[in-house]
Specification:
By secondary structure, the chain is an alpha/beta fold. A hairpin with an 8-residue loop joins strand 1 and strand 2. 29% of the residues lie in helices and 30% in strands. The chain folds into 2 domains: 220 residues, 3-Layer(aba) Sandwich (Rossmann fold); 64 residues, Alpha-Beta Plaits, CATH 3.30.70.100. The strands form 3 sheets. Strands 6-7-8-3-9-10 form a 6-stranded mixed β-sheet, sandwiched between helices. The protein has a 4-stranded antiparallel β-sheet with strand order 2-1-4-5. Bound molecules: adenosine-5'-diphosphate and magnesium ion. The site of magnesium ion (MG) has 5 residues, from helix 1.
């Protein structure tokens, strides 16, 4: 058994165009490992391919190419075991409106072959704060309640991985907090959590690792802390009186780039260096500063930087 909860290799998806509309390349060959025990965020703008990825894992969408393993089980070679090890809360709230929450969890448990004496219907309803609604028709539940019911439904077979696709859509703040409390509790007990979101702050607050996808491509995957470190980066642009042919020796300690013969771009990580040190180094090199400007980055900038790259094959971002 590998130490990854999920392993995705070269995953591609083409949605065939219908009624004369063109095919849509939704995933362009994604490689992604999600470590066991992580709280993993799959972040990306609408249309990036998050749900497509999740739905392939869930067996709801057929992939075009590539492979995926869930808890070590290949989704093609061992679909039953793969499915037994994952619980998925889909983005769309799909319901049989005439079942009560209690019935829905019982039916789901039956589908996963959980014997009646091992079912945890009552506990699950309690965990998602739906005991008072246990016997109400599901169609009478609010959006937030439905979402929480789907979380309970995803957990009936007690899988080691729980995936939540855009879980906070339509959930009000207070109930969102309850949802996160429950998810954090599951995580603390060892469940690997994967959530997709297009909200940066949500991923930042909850996830220990963040992958960013855009136009069906993975553009970043790193520990949240590391991603946030880039936020501490500042770029200083220095315009000089002198013309240079190379980066001066005195600046080699910094990440420096010669933009034009009289313009330098210096990246400084504010934890390690400051603008004063850079300016001192420039003076040490015997250079004269004509002008200087600084640019700070925040996570929003990084996200935009990573997701605003041109759409290479000219397809529309939906
Ligand atoms: P996300 O969940 O990141 O918002 P999706 O995975 O839902 O993105 O969609 C990725 C791309 O695939 C989008 O361009 C979307 O329009 C397209 N797409 C999704 N589902 C279908 C489908 N059933 N048929 C055709 N295109 C689809
Ligand atoms: Mg989606």
């Amino acid at each position: 058994m590998s130490e990854n909860a999920i392993e995705i290799k070269g995953l591609k998806k083409v949605y065939k165009g219908r009624h004369g509309s063109p095919d849509k390349l939704a995933l362009k060959g994604i490689d992604l490992n999600i470590p066991q025990g992580s709280m993993f965020g799959l972040l990306g703008p609408n249309g990036a391919g998050k749900s497509t990825t999740i739905n392939i894992l869930a067996g709801l969408v057929n992939k075009t190419e590539g492979s995926a393993k869930i808890w070590g089980f290949d989704i093609d070679e061992n679909p039953r075991n793969a499915r037994a090890n994952i619980g998925i809360v889909p983005q769309e709230l799909m319901f049989d409106a005439f079942f009560t929450p209690r019935e829905m969890l019982e039916v789901q448990a039956g589908m996963y072959g959980v014997p009646p004496e091992e079912r945890r219907t009552e506990d699950l309803l309690k965990a998602v704060h739906l005991l008072p609604q246990a016997d109400a028709y599901s169609r009478t539940l609010s959006g937030g309640m439905k979402r929480r019911l789907l979380v309970a439904k995803a957990m009936v077979h007690n899988p080691p991985i729980l995936v939540l696709d855009e879980p906070t859509a339509g959930v009000d703040i207070e109930l969102r907090q309850q949802l996160w409390d429950y998810v954090r509790e599951l995580h603390a007990r060892g469940t690997t959590i994967v959530l997709t979101t297009h909200y940066l702050e949500e991923a930042e607050e909850l996830c220990d690792t963040i992958a960013i996808i855009n136009h069906g491509e993975l553009v970043a995957c790193e520990p949240t802390k590391q991603l946030l470190k880039r936020v501490d980066e500042k770029q200083v642009i220095i315009e000089l009186t002198e013309k240079l042919t190379a980066v001066p020796e005195a600046l080699s300690a910094f990440s420096t780039e010669l933009l034009e013969d009289n313009r330098l771009a210096v990246k400084i990580n504010q934890a390690n260096a400051n603008v004063g040190q850079v300016l001192a180094a420039v003076q040490d090199a015997g250079l004269t500063i004509l002008d200087i400007s600084t640019q700070e980055t925040d996570l929003e900038d990084i996200f935009l930087q990573l997701t605003s790259s041109k759409n290479k094959d000219g397809q529309e971002a939906a």
